[in-house]
Amino acid sequence: MKKILIVSATSGSNLILAKKIGELFGVKNEIITLEDYELPLYSRKIKLEDQAIINDLCEKVINANGFVFCGPEYNGGSAPILTNAITWISVTTDYWRDAFSDKIGLIATHSGGNGNSFLSTFRQQLEFMGVIVYPRSIKVNKSREFNIESSKKIIKRFQKLL
Prior knowledge:
The chain is α/β, with parallel strands linked by helices and 162 residues long.
């Protein structure tokens, strides 16, 4: 059975967005928030005291057939927690692209600004890691509410790629 991992970078507005998106899927999905994984800022000098934390996250990512990433735009790019988690995953797997290669991804954002910089920079990062990123995204901000009809169409087409 196909499974989508919905990853919220934060436990606020993007987690709410992740839950709304999760309700629209017709396939099995799991929602996680990266704030539940207490990963230190990555440095080659730092060793995780509790390897189970990153092993759990890696297992979820590796076993997913596709992803939805929900994150805010921070300073014209990705939230630091998202980049940090991806770094930990990539250095923990045998080959750094193992967890992401040849899987599909959808990017969503709930940002204070328009979120376009996050969508474009994160798309580049995912594609570099081997994710096939769906060309449309879901965007919510101060002047743009969650559009359920548009989101249903995006998710319906996204699921066809599974």
